[in-house]
Predict the structure.
Amino acid sequence: MSSSYMSWRSSASNRRPTQPTNTSKNRGTIYPDLNQDPTPKPVIHFLAFALIVFLGLLQFLPASHFRHPSDPHRKWVPFNSHSSPSPTVKLTVDEDDGLIHIVSWMQCLDLKVLAVLANSTLSSSRYPDMLHFHFFTPQGDKDKVSFYKLKVLFPHSNLELHGQEKVKEIIKRASSEAEYDSLNLEEIAPFIIPSVHQSLTKFIYVSPNLILMGRIEELTGIDLSAHAAAAAEDCSNRLNSYVSSDVLDAIQRSASKPWISVTPYVKDACMPDLSLLLINGKKLEEFLEAVLWWSKVLNWSDRSDKRNPAIGLALYNRYLKLSNSWLVKEPASVDTIETSMITHYDGPKIVCSEFGNDTIPGSSHGNLWIKYLPSMSNQILGI
């Protein structure tokens, strides 16, 4: 026991004492948190504040893209910068049902063309749920299959198919066979439709062969109380290209009709573009009579090779001129597409012929129509 104790004492006595630590020399490495924080430069404070203000201001910028609620793929579609609504235009809709009625007349049914027209109009509008399409087709509401195909493509949209028989019958009763054949039904029908469908007192007529990239609801805020229609001027077609000023002067001196202008006709006046119209059905009294009168006086039934100017003459001083942005343009270039509110349909389409309906050859097709073709069109329409 004693030897064990002594050996423990000798090992303990031989231990080296621990050297004291110089904390003053190593203070910086052992206690780094005691150092004073570096002071940032004033310019850093300024840049941080400017960044916060900049990010806050970004919240006030208008939306650049949107996703249509009916699109199953939820694709982002850019808004058109050129179609921002005018601050003086207020949205006005039908007083009875609160909808914006869009009418189109198609001589030969082509669901692909109608689908592009409807989809481009819906995707460009801020109020797609307020748009109501009325498509006048040869079979109308009797063609249930075509109606259901369109409803599958646009399940949340308001659309109807109407027949053309009643409108054609009114025109046939008022005209001779030669006069009837000289008229373009797609141009004259919009002015007859209010007399058949009296609920359509104010509507927007759109030719089916168009692609809309502007917000069509902007047109509904235009005051038509003093006009029968509103249309853009097409200065590529002028009045003196169809009728000489001497003939118009002679008619003005000899005839006494309410639709003849009181003031002299401007010989190089631009003709209205009848592809897109805003119609006021309450101001169309005697309009068909005026068109047929002009067609007869000018003996236009014998000149079927040229476009009949009777509608343009019946509208002379009776239509409100829309801005040039609503003039239909050709989708010939990227610049035209980006600055236009409306262009011609550039895809394959069916044309009427006495031997049956034919499709225009594919060499003349463009690519813009594909952008507005609904995603399920291949399966539903069999394209």
